[in-house]
C-alpha cells in the first residue's frame, strides 16, 4: 500500500505539471486510505504537500511573468487567516462523535471527508466544463470587502479539507481583481502556496507530532512528478487528459463517500 501511495505522489505531481492543476486534490484520499492517516493528519499533511507543489508551479509561472504579486498578497492574507482559524480553533474543538441517530453515529471524520467529496465533485465539474475560461481586461482593481470575505471562506475550506481550491480562486481573481486568465492561473498558485504553507506552519506544525521524514519524502516525489509532467506536456495534449482526470476525480469522490458513509 505504501509503494502504491508513493506512486500516487508521483501521479499527483505529474498531473500538476501536465494539466496545470487538479492533482493535489488526490493528496487527502491517498494519505487517508493508502497510508491510513486519520482525518486530522491527512488534511494537515495535504496542506503542506499542496502548498509546496503550488509554490513550485507558481514560481515557474512567475518566470513567464504570469504572477501578479500584489494581487496574491491582497487575496492571500485573508485566506491565510481563514486557514489558521479553522486549523487552530475549529478542528481541535470538534468532538470525535458529532451526533447519533439510533445506531448511526455521525463522526468528525465523516463530516470532513463528506465535505471533501463534495468539493471533489465541484472541482471535477470545473475540469469537465467545456466553457472557455474568460479573463478580465488586465486593468487591475480590487473589490476589497468581497476579496476579504472570499479569502476567509476559501481559506476556511482549505483549512477544513486540506485542498487548495484553485477552481474557486481563479474565477474570484477574474471577477474581483479583473485579472487576465493567464495571470489569474499563475497568481492562484502563489495564493494556494501562501495560505496552505503558512496555515500549516502557524497551526498544525505547532500542535501536531509531524512525521517530517515521511512528509518531505512524499512532497519531494510529488514535486519531481511536476517536472515529469512539464516534460510530458511537450508531447502530450494536457487538455485531452484533463477530461479523463475529471472523471477519475468523480470516481474517487464516490469511493470516499462509499467508504465513509456506507462501508464505514
Q: How would you spell out the order of helices and strands?
A: HHHHEEHHHHHHH
Structural class: mainly alpha
Number of domain units: 1
How large is the count of helical segments? 11
| Tertiary shape | globular
Q: pLDDT below 50 for ≥5 consecutive residues: which ranges?
A: none
- Please describe the biggest sheet, giving its number of strands, its sense, and whether it closes into a barrel: 2 strands, antiparallel
Number of strands: 2
The helix content, as a percent range, equals over 70%
Describe the structure.
The protein is mainly α. It has one domain. It is built from 11 helices and 2 strands. The chain has helices at 2-19, 27-34, 39-63, 69-93, 108-128, 144-161, 166-177, 181-202, 204-207, 212-232, 238-263, and strands at residues 97-101, 104-107. The chain has a two-stranded antiparallel ribbon with strand order 1-2. Helix 1 runs antiparallel to helix 2, helix 3 (39-63) crosses helix 10 (212-232) and helix 7 (166-177) crosses helix 8. The longest helix is centred in the last third of the chain and has 26 residues, at 238-263. The chain is globular and about 55 Å long. The mean pLDDT is 87.
Amino acid at each position: 500500500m505504501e509503494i502504491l501511495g508513493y506512486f500516487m505522489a508521483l501521479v499527483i505531481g505529474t498531473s500538476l505539471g501536465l494539466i496545470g492543476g487538479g492533482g493535489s486534490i488526490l493528496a487527502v484520499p491517498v494519505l487517508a486510505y493508502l497510508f491510513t492517516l486519520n482525518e486530522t493528519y491527512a488534511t494537515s499533511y495535504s496542506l503542506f504537500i499542496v502548498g509546496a507543489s503550488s509554490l513550485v508551479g507558481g514560481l515557474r509561472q512567475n518566470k513567464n511573468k504570469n504572477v501578479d504579486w500584489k494581487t496574491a498578497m491582497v487575496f492571500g492574507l485573508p485566506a491565510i487567516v481563514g486557514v489558521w482559524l479553522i486549523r487552530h480553533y475549529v478542528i481541535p474543538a470538534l468532538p470525535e462523535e458529532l451526533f447519533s441517530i439510533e445506531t448511526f453515529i455521525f463522526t468528525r471524520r465523516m463530516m470532513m471527508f463528506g465535505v471533501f467529496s463534495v468539493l471533489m465533485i465541484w472541482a471535477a465539474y470545473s475540469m469537465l466544463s467545456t466553457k472557455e475560461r474568460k479573463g478580465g481586461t488586465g486593468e487591475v482593481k480590487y473589490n476589497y470587502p468581497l476579496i476579504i470575505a472570499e479569502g476567509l471562506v476559501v481559506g476556511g475550506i482549505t483549512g477544513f479539507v486540506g485542498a487548495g481550491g484553485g477552481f474557486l480562486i481563479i474565477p474570484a481573481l477574474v471577477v474581483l481583481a479583473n485579472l487576465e486568465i493567464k495571470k489569474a492561473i499563475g497568481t492562484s498558485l502563489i495564493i494556494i502556496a501562501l495560505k496552505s504553507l503558512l496555515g500549516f506552519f502557524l497551526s498544525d506544525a505547532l500542535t501536531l507530532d509531524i512525521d517530517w521524514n515521511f512528509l518531505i519524502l512524499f512532497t519531494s516525489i510529488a514535486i519531481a512528478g511536476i517536472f515529469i509532467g512539464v516534460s510530458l506536456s511537450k508531447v502530450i495534449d494536457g487538455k485531452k487528459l484533463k477530461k479523463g482526470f475529471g472523471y477519475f476525480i468523480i470516481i474517487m469522490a464516490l469511493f470516499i463517500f462509499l467508504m465513509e458513509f456506507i462501508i464505514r
